[in-house]
Amino acid sequence: MGKLIVFGLIVVYVGGVWKFWTGFKRTNFSPSLPNRLGLSLLWPALFISNKSYRQNFRKALKG
Prior knowledge:
Blueprint: H1 2-22, H2 33-41, H3 43-49, H4 51-61
């Protein structure tokens, strides 16, 4: 059962990275590669802690 939960969390994380990466052009963030990479990989922590990031994350997912 634990392996299934870990697998599910990995799928959600990778899905979030992919959706944010592909929808990045809809956000207000500067389009540099390091910025895009960092914001995509750190999305769970930023989503929890930053209201502005949550709004931009939702914009990226709407595509």
